[in-house]
Specification:
By secondary structure, this protein is an all-alpha fold. Helices cover 94% and strands 0% of the residues.
Length: 180
């Protein structure tokens, strides 16, 4: 109801200058212009007072909240920047530590390779010794066989040289006698 009354009053004041123009006197027109201006200014002031206060309060709250968030973001960024600077300051030490570790690993790998090579050399020597022993054994066996063949040939030659027809007959008779 109160809104309707306010609206009616505003319409009356804004419409009055139009009706006043139709009258013959022009002096009242200036008063109506000022009255219209006051009504318009009052209406704008009322709207600003009613809607502007909460709007500006909410806007101020939002701005403060944004400022707090920006401060937190700035602090986080500063913390990250400090961390990066700290890591950059320690970078030389980390690089030196990595180089030292690399040298240690290289020395350890060289030692492992040396031990592996020594073990391979020992295995190769053992294998070579086994092959030499096997070749020596095979050579001795071959030499024994060859000596046996030579001995057999020599014995055969000696037997053939001593073998006469009378000796052969005596051997055959002895063989036949042993068979009976």
């Amino acid at each position: 109801m109160k809104r309707f009354a306010t609206l009616a009053l505003v319409v009356c004041f804004t419409a009055a200058p139009i009706f006043a123009e139709g009258e013959a006197g022009g002096g009242n027109l200036e008063i109506w212009k000022w009255a219209n201006f006051l009504v318009l200014a009052g209406g704008i002031g009322y709207l600003i007072g009613k809607k502007g206060g909460p709007f500006f309060a909410e806007r101020s709250t939002r701005i403060r909240k944004d400022m707090v968030e920006a401060g937190e973001v700035r602090q986080a960024a500063e913390a990250r920047a400090a961390e990066v600077e700290r890591r950059l300051a320690n970078l030389e030490a980390e690089i030196a530590a990595l180089r030292a570790e690399s040298v240690k690993e290289e020395e350890a790998e060289t030692g492992r390779a040396g031990r592996h090579t020594a073990a391979e050399i020992v295995k190769t020597q053992e294998h070579a010794e086994q092959e030499i022993a096997a070749a020596g054994k095979a050579a001795r066996m071959e030499l024994k066989r060859y000596c046996a063949e030579l001995a057999m040939e020599l014995a055969e030659k000696k037997i053939r040289a001593r073998m006469t027809p009378e000796t052969q007959d005596a051997l055959v008779r002895g063989f036949v006698r042993d068979l009976k």
